[in-house]
Specification:
CATH superfamily of the largest domain: Winged helix-like DNA-binding domain superfamily/Winged helix DNA-binding domain
Number of domains: 2
CATH class of the largest domain: Mainly Alpha
Order of helices and strands: HHHEEHHEHHEEH
Length: about 190
């Protein structure tokens, strides 16, 4: 019974939205192989709430939307808002994502090869990827005109959450049905 608090904290922390007692109870019971009463859960929640009331924590356990969720304390909302504002500037457009995917799978690749695959100019997308340091110039091709070659950077690995290019999904990993729009005809 002493691990209930830690498991409950982990569950609340990992949940992207408020989680109700009806959702919490079966998870903890299955995980810990015990039977929990509502009073046990409410007591554990109250214990966690009191722990995080301390000024040493920047977040608190809040009852919201019929459930419970960890939220940032009001004093730190501005800091989170600044981070979110900066993070939205880092999002990639659809064109940049397509260009980045081609570079990741075909590297080293020239701009003309990128444009041949995409069927449109890649100037802007390539410039943005270079600015964000997701793509590097890796050298020059031996073909006529010696065009620049592009490849992914270590920052790309971090951005995608992978350790190496070997962690990228292989084309055979994609199922045909996942990439179809609409319903199949009979």
């Amino acid at each position: 019974m002493e691990n209930v608090h830690q498991h409950l904290q982990a569950l609340l922390f990992a949940s992207p939205q408020a989680i109700s007692l009806d959702e919490i109870k079966p998870v903890l019971e299955e995980t810990l192989q015990i039977t929990l009463g509502e009073s046990d859960l409410l007591q554990a929640i109250e214990t966690i709430r009191s722990i995080f009331e301390s000024d040493q924590f920047a977040f608190e356990l809040v009852e919201i939307a019929g459930g419970y969720q960890f939220l940032t304390k009001g004093a730190y909302h501005h800091t989170v808002a600044v981070h979110l504002k900066q993070a939205t500037k880092k999002r990639l457009s659809q064109a940049a994502m397509e260009t980045l995917a081609i570079i990741a799978y075909k590297q080293p690749v020239t701009k003309s090869e990128l444009e041949e695959i995409r069927g449109v100019s890649c100037d802007y997308a390539l410039q943005k990827l270079l600015e964000k340091e997701l793509v590097l110039i890796t050298g020059r091709s031996e073909s006529p005109g010696r065009p620049l070659l592009y490849g992914t950077s270590d920052k790309f690995m971090d951005y995608m959450g992978i350790r190496s290019l070997n962690d990228l999904p292989r084309p055979k990993d994609f199922k045909e049905t996942e990439n179809v729009i609409g319903e199949a005809s009979e």
